[in-house]
Structure formats: structure tokens, C-alpha cells
Amino acid sequence: xxxxxxxxxxxxxxxxxxxxxxxxxxxxxxxxxxxxxxxxxxxxxxxxxxxxxxxxxxxxxxxxxxxxxxxxxxxxxxxxxxxxxxxxxxxxxxxxxxxxxxxxxxxxxxxxxxxxxxxxxxxxxxxxxxxxxxxxxxxxxxxxxxxxxxxxxxxxxxxxxxxxxxxxxxxxxxxxxxxxxxxxxxxxxxxxxxxxxxxxxxxxxxxxxxxxxxxxxxxxxxxxxxxxxxxxxxxxxxxxxxxxxxxxxxxxxxxxxxxxxxxxxxxxxxxxxxxxxxxxxxxxxxxxxxxxxxxxxxxxxxxxxxxxxxxxxxxxxxxxxxxxxxxxxxxxxxxxxxxxxxxxxxxxxxxxxxxxxxxxxxxxxxxxxxxxxxxxxxxxxxxxxxxxxxxxxxxxxxxxxxxxxxxxxxxxxxxx
Length: 416
Fold this sequence. Notes:
The chain is of the alpha/beta class and about 425 residues long. It contains 14 helices and eleven strands. The two termini are about 15 Å apart.
């Protein structure tokens, strides 16, 4: 039996929808590929055990407590802590605890397939956050963990589709050039490497690593068809029609100005589609849409029904994406699940040079669905554009998925 561990989460309990759903999809794709290989006599092992190896050192309770404490520390030193501040911190703690317990349960479910009693035969790095270079000068590599965990010493490593960086491959990326030698030493531990985006492909291949040439593969969530998520989507969690909103904070450029722009676009959509009473459901990581007086006033003035859901599990997010009337987002994985579920969406992105956005345009030509008031105001134009983008996806994803699943097959059949 092959015992395969997936390395995705690092250090802290993770409550990002995309990270969990990538891991779920990669596990399912590995299992499905193993069955097909066994049926064709290409995989002698009778069984493949695969699951997440979680690396986090905080419980849901501890992390919720730390976030509430962080809220209190954010109160300006010139202000005295009031009973209202403490009450808000307590509420923040309770909301985070409810959310984090759902993600803790998700983590435990993802880890069930891995036999933790046995030394892993193979390790697969499979997340969009493993090889990123933040602008502050630090970088995280899953490989650093391997040196700290004795039972992983000497275990063959493979990379499935991490992003290498959030920036263009150029001389301005000082972190890369500074650590290039160390990176090459780390990469020699990998028997196969793939990336999710093309941006750094040529540069990393120029390292002339001992493994086969680095290739690109699909984000793991795209390895599965919509039917593979049926256990999450069979029945809508919301009985009435709704618009879904999923926005990250400043990291994705969601400033107050951009949020006001979004609220106006939603109002224009509701007016043009004759659905003034439809509910807006917001599942953003923080309550950005109504978190400032100016935004709250705009919502009230436009008579938009608004509902914020914070304690949403990854499976519930998939359900909401699958049944929404329209999705408004600046989230990469929200776009992916709109494509998978063949649901209409408008995408607001502030950085046209982001390698992930470039890859979405390259693979599926989603650029026509960038958020624009003209689309929201003209139902026929919007419908035609949505149909075009979704058709592009259905056509283009097939060969890309075949290539990506073949890469997984190469990992499974790699003789040690």
C-alpha cells in the first residue's frame, strides 16, 4: 500500500476556503487516478492511502482567543478600553470560535485518509500558499518543515501546483535572487515539480534540477467536475434567491472606495434584473461590506437586503457558490467554483499582473467578466458574456485536466 501525505497547511489552523477545498480535490483526484491505474494494470499497489498531514499548533479555541486579543490590542493607545470594547472582543471571539471549529472539523476530515501510524511513502506539496514570496522579505516553503520532522527525512517529495510567487519574474524580485542558491538546494529534494502558473516556469527550469522538467498543472479544485462536489451541493442551504459576495480585504485591493463601487454595481444589477428584494449574502473573511459607516449608509440608502455569514465551512461555501443567482467577488477560488458550477459571476481584480489572474485569462479568458457597471446594467449583454466565458471553460478545461491528472499518475507510478 502507498501511504501518501499531502502537505498544505503550515503552522496555524487555516480558515481559508480555497486551501481546504484544494486539499479535498487533490485527495479525490489521487484516489480516482489510482483506481484507473489499477484497472489498467499500471499500479501494482492494491491500495493507496492519502490524506492531509496538518501542521498547526493552535486549537480553534486558542486561535479565536488570540484574534479577540488582537482586536483589543488594535484599540489606539490614546483610548481607554471600555466595556463596549470588551463586549465587542467577546462577540468577535464567539464568531471566530464558531467558524474555526468548522475548519478544524474540515482539517480532521481531510487527514483521515492518511495513515499517521506509518511512515509516508511519498509527500505531495499541494497548495497555493507554499512557495509564495511576500513583499516583506520572508518566504515560506513547505520544504523547511521537512528538516524539522524526523519521520519525513528521506521521504520522496513531489509538488502539485503551488504558486511560486505573487509577482512577475524579474530582477526586481530581490528575495528570489538573494535565496536562489538555497532554493535550488531545496528543490533537489523533489522528484517532480509542477506549478499552478506559467510565470516562473522558465526561470525555475533554468536551474537545471535533477528532476524532470517543471510543468504547469491546474489548480486542484479544477481536477473535479461539478458532480464530484454533489455531496456539498445537493440541496441549497438558502431557500430564497440570493446574490453571493466573497471579498478579501486590502490584500486584494478591497478599499472602502472599491467596496462602495461594488455596492453600486449590485444596486445596478438588482434594478436592471428587476429583483430589488433579493438578498445579498456576504461570506467574506471579515465584514467589509457593512463595516464602515459610509458603506452601511450606502446599503441603507439603496434599500439592499444584506446578510453576513461568517461561520461558513468550506463545504457550505461550495453550496452557496453552486446555487447563487449571481456572484460578485475578488477571490480566485470563488471564480473557480463559479466556473466549475457554471454559475454567473463578476470578478473585481485590481492587479492585472497577478500571475493567478494572468493564468485565468490565459486558460479560460475570463477577462470579459471583470466587474463593470455596463455589464450589471444590461442583462442581455451580461448573459451573453457569461455564456461565452462558461462555454470557454467547458471546452478548455478538458485537455488541461487530462494533462494534470496524467501528472498525478506519474507521481503514483514513480518507482522508488
